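User: I've been going back and forth on whether these two constructs are worth ordering. Before I decide, could you fold them both?

Assistant: Sure. I'll take them in the order you sent them. The first construct and its structure tokens:
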Amino acid sequence: MNLSVVIPNYNGEDILRKNLPKVISSVEDAEIIVVDDASVDGSLEVLVNFGKKIRVIKNEKNLGFSSTVNRAIKEAKGEIVILLNSDVIPEKGFLPPLLSHFDDEKVFAVGCMDKSVENGKIILRGRGIGSWKKGFLMHSRGEVNRMDTLWVSGGSGAFRKSIWDKLGGFSHLYDPFYWEDIDLSYRALKSGYKIVFEPKSIVIHEHEKGAIKSTYSNFKVKTIAYRNQFIFVWKNATDLDLLFSHLLWLLYHFVKAFIGMDMAFFRGFFSVIVLLPEIIKYKLKDKKFFVKKDKEVVNYLIK
């Protein structure tokens, strides 16, 4: 099968220089696209040195993760697209177990095992679980001894391009980052497709060297996370009891945020209000593909 590897980059000059040669050696026969999201460091100069080994797409202005990835996948030639963050290094032999699942035409995406470097320790990640609690989808790391998962990470996973195109890819509503991969995976599951976690496909993920931590303040990151959590519910939930529960729990969350002086919560909420017409538009469009209820998507997952 034809493969494309898409690597979004923003101000990743040093990690591109370090990691890109390892990616190239791991996927020798694949098309490799690095899409630069208007970096202001020396990223483009670094990329030029790789010559014809990679294809470079340049954003004229900073678009955010979802829009940047969507642009590259639109131009990708492979029937399977592997998304790798610039701070991700594939281990030797990661590709065959990842691709083996695509023999099943209902498989949309397969996630890698992340050896996540966090505070000097290695945490095994890549499988996600979640449940609806207090009006929101609460997601967390799942144990890595199972292959079912609630989402495939946009930083280390493989996706079937035909289904990606059908579902519309990542939603730009989540720009600049967070929740876009959970949203797409959730929509795929509600649409009757399969997603898989493959523990034998291993990558090293040096999160702390990525663009988010080096570019955005903690308050800004928290505000965006709150905003996107609201977007996810308003855009994807269709079970009436879940929507009713969300409305009932809003008062609780507002009071809790007020007592805790959590200004990021309020800023996140009010920033999403202006997006409501567009959220409704996408909700109506996505709903046409749904064949499962919300509870069916999350109830089969266990720790």
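The second construct, handled the same way:
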Amino acid sequence: MAYQVEIGERKFTCLRGNLHMHTLLSDGTKAHREIARIADEAGLDFIVITDHNVYEPGLDGWVGNTMLLVGEEVHDSAREPQSSHTLCFNIRHDMAEHASDPQALIDAVAAQGGFTFLAHPFERDVADFLPEPNISWRDWHVEGYAGIELWNYMSEFKSVLKSKADAVLFAYAPALAISGPYPETLHKWDELLRTRRISAFGGSDAHGTVYQLGPLSRAVQPYAYLFRCVNTHLLIETSLTGTLEHDRAAVYKALREGHGFLGYEQPGSIAGFAFWARSGGAEATMGETLTLQDTLELRVQTPGHARLRLLRDGQPVAETKGTQLTFIGHRPGVYRVEVYRRYAGRQRGWIFGNPIYVR
């Protein structure tokens, strides 16, 4: 559910949502409104459904207290493997006709007022018994996309199933499998941030698929469970009004500009996380730009005890254990935060904040 958070001297409404999922229109197992009903029961403020190469208009709206939004995940189905999946948001028309040319797709989405994120930019090869190809992003020459999917839950989950025994274990104890965004994805994000703004979010990639292994049959990672795992929290400076056009615009603006953070909610709620910077009497938080005036102060606050890391241009500049971190600096750069917490026997990724751009 939406909650209020103080970040520095400002107050925000924070919306908790889940992005990147599939319905019966592609390779999911439930219909749009049924998925939204499950999300409502999980306390989500919004979801964005992104079926493969199909867009069904006119389905945006409210189901209970959850705003249902519809985008599209586009890829070239004739390509082998079917790499470079593009998540298209705030669209009004089907974008699949541009699937064979990622740059043309990005441009076509922008032309209708939408924006794009690169889905699961790094995947890993999986065990031979899984019919799951490596569909990493392979067209890094493209320009004009808003951001990347920093953490894709299902990509990580399938990568740890090294044997059939692992598959059974993690199907019944999924918390043992998930540890955080891939290091290569974090490294690529920092590389991209050296040249321009790149926002990030966490996606569930929920399908609700039922798998069978011998006599065992189970819905592995059902929607209801995934909606309580990797979520994205977006900051808006006004409250939702219940008017679809207004509230949809607020969600998409925050997502596009990186006003928020993502995290894994099984180790503990991430609500209440805050990251802000102050210089010369001005303040900025995630997704915003701050002009450096002599001294720079950055603060991080977490809702529970954890290991906090502050990075500048991809390099750690401060680290502590606890619930707060304060850093005084004098250099411009791109500052972001990683938070890790011990859960299910080892340290796991917990919260990852979008950057503050200090110039």
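Notes on the second construct follow. The first strand starts at residue 3 and ends at 7. The chain has a mean pLDDT of 95.
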